[in-house]
Amino acid sequence: MTTVKEVCRLAGVSTATVSRALKNPELVSAKTRERVFKAVQESGYRPNMLASSVKTGKSNSLVVLVPNLSNPFFMRIIQGIEQAAHEQGYSVLLGDTQGEPAREHEIAGMVLSNRADGLIHLDHSFPFSANDAHLAERVPVVSVCERIMGDKEFPVIELDNYAATRSLAKHLVNYGHKKFGIIAGQRDSQIHLDRLAGIKDVFATEGISFNEDMIVGGAYSIEMGQQGARDLMAKENRPTAIFCFNDDIALGTVFELKRMGIRIPQDVSVVGFDNIKVSAFIDPPLTTIDQPAHDMGRRAVEVVLQIIKGVPLKRNREIFPYNILERESSGPVNPDF
Amino acid sequence: MTTVKEVCRLAGVSTATVSRALKNPELVSAKTRERVFKAVQESGYRPNMLASSVKTGKSNSLVVLVPNLSNPFFMRIIQGIEQAAHEQGYSVLLGDTQGEPAREHEIAGMVLSNRADGLIHLDHSFPFSANDAHLAERVPVVSVCERIMGDKEFPVIELDNYAATRSLAKHLVNYGHKKFGIIAGQRDSQIHLDRLAGIKDVFATEGISFNEDMIVGGAYSIEMGQQGARDLMAKENRPTAIFCFNDDIALGTVFELKRMGIRIPQDVSVVGFDNIKVSAFIDPPLTTIDQPAHDMGRRAVEVVLQIIKGVPLKRNREIFPYNILERESSGPVNPDF
DNA sequence: GGTATATTTGCAATCGATTACATTAATAAC
DNA sequence: GTTATTAATGTAATCGATTGCAAATATACC
């Protein structure tokens, strides 16, 4: 590995000059600058980022904590994160927790061990171990699309989940639906509560009774969508419209309903949440809420970098606008169903 | 930030002892070891990974270079990579190139600048800039599911693409199909050629003439699938069976054909490649080739770690077995179509 | 008990950068 | 031409660890 010394030798200057020529070229005369560049070129020198990080105390990396990489929605966020991070000269460390707290603590620990300068959290769990909890204060953290549970309020980039489900609910109510089912993802998160609140709110003003019994599910997966569809259709008072709390669930629901011979939307309307890519290409295309995932990922980078740099945040919560996409999986109620 | 000095102070020992107590506990007496642990506990000390990396020359990170994060197939590989890496104490840096060579060079450069110890490449392009090409020799690289073009032969973990398309072709020929279309992804890659070879081979033995004209497409995307379907159906001699070179393309093809009123598989059979999750849940479920993406990702980590550690590889190419999934998007030829 | 050997510990060099401070060279001012 | 400023460079300390070597301590052996 060629080090700065080799460049020094070739250019006939000190390490200080080499370092300056590369990081603060304006501090070095044009003549020697050129000499250094040539020496760098010849020797194929690459500064050791780690060494420089030790000295400067900045790793120029961010770590992204994902509950489950196989959810395509997260990929859109991560893509935005990766892009923005790169533009700012940061690299992205990836950590898939698979829902395991131990794994989560390790990943969050990357910031504590100087491997990363900040953490972007795509889940709602408190990412530090009990031991490290007091250290969390010093760690730049921002969560995206989820709100971190716990005493400390971390900055968050989120969707207006409440308003989004309100508009979905209104959309379905306008079509005449009165009997609803909900297939939820993880039920202990804030976004679950927010989404539920939006639905309940519309029901209240429309005089539709809400019943805990109409909620099934408990994980954001296609299989849960299938299971949920079966569970809802087995009820004596089966719904004519189903809220799926993400598009993966909706995919499973649509698939399973069709398999049961139930037509969408003629018999049952199905709506999703997130707008993953395939949602537009299934049969029927899914009515869903479009989250600006890419932009939210980008914004998360800006915010966490702001925290890292010590710039005070204007606000701790940033609410991004949703967009309801009325596609063909929802339609007028079928009174004969 | 608490450093080792603070622990020294609390435990009343030297930095050497602290370092040893943490990395090589057996070199330290039980008594002082406990004292050090207690001091670590009290102070909330976390060793600075970067500092240790500078000294040891190992960053304990791998960088993954992905052409496009939004392709769900890559996520399965990455998930395998992430898991295996974590088990080995490595962390994963993510780089999305978006097909830009400049970006690719930067990402590959992470290994040259000691940010990562090795590179896992999910694309077929040569990842180094012309300038760095000679440095590539020193960089542990392995490619997964693609073979890197260029003079140097990098180790590769790949599917038996040739045999896989052979079996797809046989599957369709057995159903009586004689008129085929192919919607390709990137055409300049080795896997494209391998897959094509498999198809051509079956055609040759079955007496089916092959025609470059039956190949359309040029990118692995849903939209390309739609476009390809339209292109193929506009031909005077339109096919009754379509090979899509990945599942994203197949999704678009299925969607578009159905929109054109063409029934699958009654009128046209469609087969994909990769077996992404949703392939099983679209209508009709997709006949496709299952790649053990997760395992291939895992294996890639093992191989690149072997290179890093200087253990000679038994073989430079590892071919993983495919699995043909005959689902409902393929069926007997319709002579009246 | 005395010597040989093994176990623990500490000192100080080192990894490859960055940077405060000092020094030298160049330019400006009069 | 001399002095005051500014620009360019170098020396050496530093970041926070790891580790070779030596010193100190403990254990084994006769």
From TrEMBL, chains A, B:
CDD domains: HTH_LacI (cd01392), PBP1_LacI_sugar_binding-like (cd06267). GO terms for molecular function: DNA-binding transcription factor activity; transcription cis-regulatory region binding. InterPro entries: HTH_LacI, Lambda_DNA-bd_dom_sf, Peripla_BP/Lac1_sug-bd_dom, Peripla_BP_I. Gene3D superfamilies: 3.40.50.2300, lambda repressor-like DNA-binding domains. Pfam families: LacI (PF00356), Peripla_BP_1 (PF00532). It comes from Paraglaciecola arctica BSs20135. Keywords: DNA-binding, Transcription, Transcription regulation. Residues 2-56 form the HTH lacI-type domain. This is LacI family transcriptional regulator, repressor for deo operon, udp, cdd, tsx, nupC, and nupG.
